[in-house]
Amino acid sequence: MKKVILIVSSIFALMALSGCGDSPKSKTVTYKYTPAEVYKETCAHCHGDKGEGKVEKKAPAINKKIVQELEMDLFDIKKGGLGQSTATEHEVMEHNMQKLTDKGYDYDINAMANYIFNAFNINK
Amino acid sequence: MKSDKIIEEVLSEIEKHEGKMSRRDAMKFLAASPIAASVLASSISTTDAQASSNVTGKIVIVGGGLAGVSTAAKLCNSLSNPNVTIIEPNPNSISYQPGQTLIGGGVWQKSDIEYKIEDHLPKEVKWIKDSVVSFDPENNKVKLSKGEEITYDYLVVATGLMLNYGAIKGLEGEITSSGDNAVVRQKVGKNGVYSIYFADGAVDTYKGIQELIEKAKVHNGPEKLQAYFTDPNTPIKCGGAPKKIMYLTHDRLVKAGVRDKVDLIFCPSGSKMFGVPEYHEAILAQFKARGFKWEYKTNLVAIDTEKKIATFQKNWLEKGEYDEDLKEYTMVPMFKDVERKYDFIHITPPQKASDIVGKSPIGSSKGWVPVVQETLQHVKYKNVFSLGDIAALPMGKTGGSIRKQYGVLADNLIAVMEKKEKLPSAYHGYTVCPLITSIGTVMLAEFDWTSKPTPSFPLDPTQERWIWWLLKVYALKPMTIYGMLAGRA
């Protein structure tokens, strides 16, 4: 019995020493197109050549959002929401993004957010 | 021997003993002996060997919860001449919120999670017992409710979030987990309506489960009793809690021998169990094994607590016209309200930033404080940082996230104080959800923004294990209280 308790205790100690998940193993993902290419060939159809948005496509303007807001939106769109079972705020776009991903138009969230901000933001 | 090897061997030893020693025995033994806590505390203190920085500057931290106090402690450990002020009106602001699920499930008491801020603040920290009513980041000052203005050189925003029960038609109130909650408790915590998201509500929830059991014992007829569990369409604290309380309710019903009298139905606003596919599949399998029902995209919008009718908005997409540009059919969002009679409903409230923060210059259109996700530095005000529930970070509203955030924040804040160009530390979105799947088992779901499992141990992370139950119930609290609040783990 004592042995078991010692074992359990040492697990907790090891957990503390190991830092409990300090080294997420990052994998390098390569994308077929650059963010600029993805934007021109897909996003621009609805969000406009300069991110100004198109009412008839029900696509909002994205030329006033800061990088951080764009990142949150793109995370929502690509990962299907910001939580475990929380609804995404971009239901339709999430669907569209899946179709675009299937066609190879995938991108890194941070890189795309920076591209949109640097290329189109009218407040910077 | 490599640490991974040791863990593997230790675990196989435990598996061998599992038959001889019941979980209950192990738990009792652990509860009686402080070994785990002491081993833990001693091991984490030895890892703290950081060089002090001599820079000076007045740091003001708004909010004295887990995020604020851990950050204060870390800064005091790292600065040789710390000048840290914390602004917090509630003397009981620190509570071990992960324990609220266990209170709701009847495993812990409320006293198990309550802590006094004065017992945990480093002695160098000045505590102002008041609340901030406005932020003026252009002039580096905040205003307090009594009218006083506090200036700062550096600001840390750690206010936490608001539980917005009032956003559900039929309920009232916007509260915090350990503050005044009288307005919400007029309707929540009785008559079949419960919520573990605040400490008193968790106490009520366990009573509610007992009532449900009593009702089930005398229930006859073809229709089963209906127990609903909701999950709103806003970011929430601890994304797992809406499910954990469902697992615990199931377990209590099984133990009382009345599980067959009750339907347990999970109604989340979204369309999956978890953002990480591996955990989604694991949870689905757990749901099926327990006979749970679920309806995706079914968001609670109103409740009539007299008639015991909940109104959910159901959302779906319908195929629209073909779009030449997209080369796909467009999708049209549709929705309709449906009414459901309930016998028991567990409400996870919609959650928001307090308007004092959200509508101030440091807030954002959605309220949450916009920070650079990796550095936790405010996007506009370089001497302002934010962490915890109030920060605009994906998936980050858990104590496990804060554990990875406060060290990053302190390192980067000190770098700004030292006028360094590059901020040294980065947060990658690590968080952990010890998903309680029964009284005695937990699935330790660890993940980050890559949406991939990031397990700390060489074990299949999608399995429910009793060892994680011991971790959850006996080790994580001491780690939080002796480790994090002291800025050491």
In terms of topology, how is this protein built?
The complex is a heterodimer of chains A (124) and B (489).
Chain A: H1 2-18, H2 35-47, H3 67-79, H4 91-102, H5 109-120
Chain B: H1 3-17, H2 23-32, H3 35-46, E1 59-62, H4 66-78, E2 84-87, H5 99-104, H6 117-120, E3 126-128, E4 132-136, E5 141-144, E6 149-151, E7 154-157, E8 162-163, H7 182-185, E9 193-194, H8 199-217, E10 225-231, H9 241-255, E11 262-268, H10 277-289, E12 293-294, E13 298-304, E14 309-323, E15 328-341, E16 344-346, E17 351-352, H11 355-358, E18 384-386, H12 399-417, E19 431-438, E20 441-447, H13 466-484
Parallel strand pairs in B: 1-2, 1-7, 2-3, 7-18, 9-16, 10-11, 10-16, 11-12
Antiparallel strand pairs in B: 4-5, 5-6, 8-17, 13-14, 14-15, 19-20
The H-level CATH homologous superfamily of the largest domain in chain B, spelled out, is FAD/NAD(P)-binding domain
User: What's the rounded overall pLDDT mean of chain A?
Assistant: 84
Task: Provide the domain count of chain B.
Answer: 2
CATH C-level name of the largest domain in chain B: Alpha Beta
Radius of gyration of chain B, in angstroms, nearest whole number: 23 Å
Unreliable spans of chain B: 1-7, 17-21, 27-49
3D shape of chain A = elongated
Major sheet of chain B, described briefly?
Answer: 5 strands, parallel
Principal-axes shape call of chain B: globular
CATH topology of chain A: Cytochrome Bc1 Complex, Chain D, domain 2
CATH architecture name of chain A? Orthogonal Bundle
| C-alpha-based Rg of chain A, rounded | 21 Å
Sheet/helix structural class of chain A: mainly alpha
Main beta sheet of chain A, described? none
Question: Architecture of the largest domain in chain B, according to CATH?
Answer: 3-Layer(bba) Sandwich
Can you list the strand order of the major beta sheet of chain B? 3-2-1-7-18
Classify the oligomer.
heterodimer
